[in-house]
Amino acid sequence: MSTVDRKKERQRRKVRIKYKIRGTAERPRLCVYKSLKHIYAQIIDDESGRTIVSASTLDLDLRDKVKGSNITSAKVVGEAIAKKALEKGIEKVVFDRNGYIYHGKVKALADSARAAGLKF
């Protein structure tokens, strides 16, 4: 019997999702990455290949509000990415969960970004 390699399975899901989700200048991609210690969010324009806005638990303005990678930290990062995006004039995005299950930290980040004004 073979064991399930969780990282490899997430990478497979990520590739499968990547074919369907593309960020454009009008509607860039909100990509989420989480590690055991931190959570990161980026808004990416895939046509030009550049990151427009980013936020994470490592940001200096968020460090005192968060501790580690938990659901409350994900909510704070979601609010921060939404505020930065709205300042840049981005209202609509495509959500890329990056192969993660839409549950827990990923769901908390998405819900707080929606509540702060992003549409997806």
UniProtKB/TrEMBL annotation:
GO terms for biological process: translation. GO terms for cellular component: cytosolic large ribosomal subunit. Belongs to the universal ribosomal protein uL18 family. One of its GO terms (molecular function) is 5S rRNA binding. CDD domains: Ribosomal_L18_L5e. The keyword Ribosomal protein applies. Keywords: Ribonucleoprotein, Ribosomal protein, RNA-binding, rRNA-binding. Pfam families: Ribosomal_L18p. This is one of the proteins that bind and probably mediate the attachment of the 5S RNA into the large ribosomal subunit, where it forms part of the central protuberance. PANTHER family: 39S RIBOSOMAL PROTEIN L18, MITOCHONDRIAL, LARGE RIBOSOMAL SUBUNIT PROTEIN UL18M. This is Large ribosomal subunit protein uL18. Gene3D superfamilies: 3.30.420.100. The keyword Ribosomal protein applies. InterPro entries: Ribosomal_L18 (IPR057268), Ribosomal_uL18_bac-type (IPR004389), Ribosomal_uL18_bac/plant/anim (IPR005484). Part of the 50S ribosomal subunit; part of the 5S rRNA/L5/L18/L25 subcomplex. Contacts the 5S and 23S rRNAs.
